[in-house]
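task queued by scheduler; priority normal; single chain, no ligands, no partner chains; default sampling; output format set to structure tokens
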Amino acid sequence: MKILQTVLLILFGIYITAQENYVQINGNTNINSFKCTNNTFKTSTGTYTLNEKQLPNIALKVEDFDCRNKIMTSDFQKTLSAEEYPYMTIKFISMDKAKTVYNAQIEVKMMNRSKTYNITFCSENGKLTGKRIVKFSDFNIKPPKKMGGMIVVKDELNLVFALAAH
């Protein structure tokens, strides 16, 4: 049993460190929570360069988000109209460094609607991490309901970023 735990810890640790870049959307329903992650995007060098002349512009395929549940993933992709709008984009408009944090202004575009947000990224071990609360309603998306309205997705989402950067 102890050997199995050690092997699982090693494999899980490798999985986490291999996941350099990801965008995660965390949300809640009236009965549960969900987490949908896209970690399939990368740059040619593997890391993003952060300077005023070259800020990241990230195109995320909506169909590449994985909610770790086939039905939930399908519902998520339908909610974001993946067939009609296959990409969600995150464009960095500006970024200022202040000690160990970066203050950025980003534009998130989903379903041909854009919204600008301010976000603070922390820098640690060559990785920038940040979070921002967004809402379905920011993009004129009605939060989905299932089972005749018995399950209701809340409007508020937590958008989480992790980018390998220098």
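post-processing summary
- The CA atoms of residues 9 and 15 lie 10 Å apart.
- Residues 1-19 have pLDDT under 50 and may be disordered.
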